[in-house]
């Protein structure tokens, strides 16, 4: 089955529509590339909604691995526009979330506990899945970025070349840190704090060059 892909043109971006619903098939993981803010919520059926009008550079597809890919890296795109982009994702279940080259991928609202979940950040960005409790969490940061998670049983954390993993819960932790980075347990009162109020000791994330 071919990829279910949605491309958004300049005409759509200038139409003034406040929301754009993107038809997608079932997916089990979400990957954000090149900036933007994606909020993942629990719901009975998969749905993707673009909030606002910064859609001229956005490509959204569900691939044959049931992975929802949101890519804001089109050539000629304004860097500040990619940072403003906001997308809401609804899914009945989730197994993995990833960010590369900047952006924030964040769960929100009540979410059923998952047996396992994986989170990854590469070349800067943030994955915040504190609202998704999981029995087993695998978290990986490469070359800058942050992961916030709630691990109830086990946490496997790997960091290379800078970054941070902060966790809540009573997980048994195994970690590997190479060339800088930190794995830290969050304070209980921080479990529901906004991202702007969370601090971690980590090197600065790489600056994403403007295209």
Fold and architecture overview:
This protein has 211 residues and is mainly beta. It has a domain of 93 residues: Pectate Lyase C-like, CATH 2.160.20. The chain has 2 helices and 16 strands. It has a 16-stranded mixed beta sheet that branches. A hairpin with a 4-residue loop joins β6 and β7. It is globular. The N terminus and C terminus are likely disordered.
The CATH architecture of the domain at 1-93 can be named as 3 Solenoid
CATH class of the domain at 1-93: Mainly Beta
Number of strands: 16
Uncertain parts? 1-17, 202-211
Run of helices and strands: EHEEEEEEHEEEEEEEEE
The tally of helices reads 2
Tell me the strand percentage band: over 45%
Radius of gyration: 17 Å
Given helix and strand content, the structural type is mainly beta
Helical amount: under 10%
Shape: globular
What is the strand and helix layout of this fold?
Elements: E1 4-7, H1 10-13, E2 19-22, E3 29-33, E4 37-42, E5 47-51, E6 59-62, E7 67-71, H2 79-84, E8 86-91, E9 96-100, E10 104-107, E11 114-122, E12 126-142, E13 146-160, E14 164-168, E15 172-178, E16 182-185
Parallel strand pairs: 3-7, 3-9, 4-8, 4-10, 9-11, 10-12, 11-12, 12-13, 13-14, 13-15, 14-16
Antiparallel strand pairs: 1-6, 2-5, 5-8, 6-7
